[in-house]
Design brief:
single chain, 219 residues, alpha+beta, OB fold (Dihydrolipoamide Acetyltransferase, E2P), 5-stranded mixed barrel, two-stranded antiparallel sheet, 7 strands
């Protein structure tokens, strides 16, 4: 029970209030503009990023959907249409799992293990989506950025870090940046998952660059 309470912190009241506020204002302006009730200059009060967050929050935040595909350890598909696509592709916020490798790209160390565990935990199950206003709602590829809560209350993002199936992604800020660094540090110290045998050259390129930075605290 205590563990579930800890996981509920992944969506604090403050962050939900911010997101709900953006959603309500954005939705009101967008609907008003569509109906001719709001002048275009008022709609410009929202940046394109805020409009996207507002639209995505209304469609996804706090809602549950069936997971129908796991691409790898940090990307999955939900059974809900997204624009012209039949499913919504979700990129897990705050983590970077080893790549499976497509085309000429080589499969990374521990990629298969990470993809397999995500399939076991999510496929065919109802998972709940939570967005983070600090990170935005989409990445540069158009994927939905989200925390995914499993049916038992755990958060997939955190479990993958805690069990050593993914790296904490230090390239982008989000609401739980420091917490995710700590989760990875604990898994690394206990040599869980990939941390038991991974070599520096097997890590993602960005991670290798971080390790060699003068002020880096990474091993």
């Amino acid at each position: 029970m205590a563990r579930r309470r800890n996981h509920r912190r992944a969506w604090s009241r403050r962050k939900r209030a911010v997101l709900v506020g953006i959603t309500l204002i954005g939705t009101a302006l967008i609907v008003g503009l569509d109906r001719g009730l709001v002048a275009p200059k008022w709609a410009r009060l929202l940046t394109p990023r805020e409009r996207t967050i507002a639209t995505d929050a209304a469609q996804y935040d706090g809602r549950s959907f069936s997971a129908v595909r796991a691409v790898d350890g940090d990307t999955l598909h939900l059974d809900v249409p997204d624009s012209t696509d039949k499913t919504t592709k979700v990129r897990l916020i705050g983590i970077d799992a080893p790549e499976m490798g497509w085309g000429n790209t080589e499969r990374m160390y521990y990629a298969e293990e990470a993809a397999t565990i995500v399939k076991q935990w999510t496929l065919g199950r109802e998972v709940t989506v939570y967005l983070d206003p600090q990170s935005g709602s989409r990445d540069r590829y158009g994927r939905l950025l989200a925390y995914i809560q499993l049916p038992d209350g755990r958060f997939l993002n955190e479990e993958l870090l805690s069990e050593g199936f993914a790296y904490a992604d230090l390239r982008f800020k989000h609401g739980y940046f420091q917490k995710y660094r700590q989760l990875e540090a604990s898994a690394r110290a206990l040599k869980k998952g990939l941390w038991a045998h991974v070599k520096p050259e097997q890590m993602p390129a960005w991670r290798q660059r971080k390790r060699t930075a003068p002020d880096s605290d990474l091993e």
